[in-house]
Amino acid sequence: MQMAIDQARIAEKNGDVPIGAVIVGENKIIGKAYNQREQLQDPTAHAEIIALTQAAAALGNWHLNGCTIYVTLEPCPMCAGALVLSRMDRLVYGCDDPKAGACKSLYNIVQDERLNHRLEVTSGVLAEDCGRILQGFFAKRRIENKNNNKVSDF
Questions:
Q1: How far apart are CA 152 and CA 10, in angstroms?
Q2: pLDDT per position as a tens digit, 66-103
Q3: In contact, 34 and 11? CB cutoff 8 Å
Q4: Cα(first)–Cα(last) distance of the chain, in Å?
């Protein structure tokens, strides 16, 4: 999870929401990424999606059986769906996402018995550290937005 946090810090430096993801398969890192929506101007450029693409390329197969993804924030519906479709075995994430979480908070896509695949889920790993990065990012963003909305004295 610490490597996923390191990836999240890269996203933050690039002005994106600090979320990082690392995929382990065959006892090695086969994908690692950070949010790049702002950088790429792509709404699908979430850390999980980019890491999934890297992992599939590393294995030469989109079936990611036997792999584990570590993510700093509970995946959204898009990313949770992609994890199911990839046949990933395990999801480990840091903090819950009460506004968009799709693995526990709002939905549980990754363990929905109606789907053809389910993941083992472990939540709360380094949750305080993961949450602190996100809280700091959004607090800074709120200050910047407030300062940018000031009315000129002229």
A1: 34
A2: 999 999 999 999 999 999 999 999 999 999 999 999 99
A3: yes
A4: 50
Segment 56-71, tens digit of pLDDT: 999 999 999 999 999 9
Q: Which residues have a catalytic role annotated? A: 48
CA 75 to chain centre: 6
- SS3 per residue for the chain: CHHHHHHHHHHHHCCCCCCEEEEEECCEEEEEEECCHHHHCCCCCCHHHHHHHHHHHHHCCCCCCCCEEEEEECCCHHHHHHHHHHCCCEEEEEECCCCCCCECCCCEHHHCCCCCCCCEEECCCCHHHHHHHHHHHHHHHHHHHHHHCCCCCC
Asked if residue 32 lies in contact with residue 58, where contact means CB atoms within 8 angstroms, the answer is no
**Structure-block tokens of residue 49:** 């999606």
Give how far Cα 12 sits from Cα of 8, 49, 142, 144, Å: 6, 18, 14, 14
CA 17/CA 103 separation, integer angstroms: 19
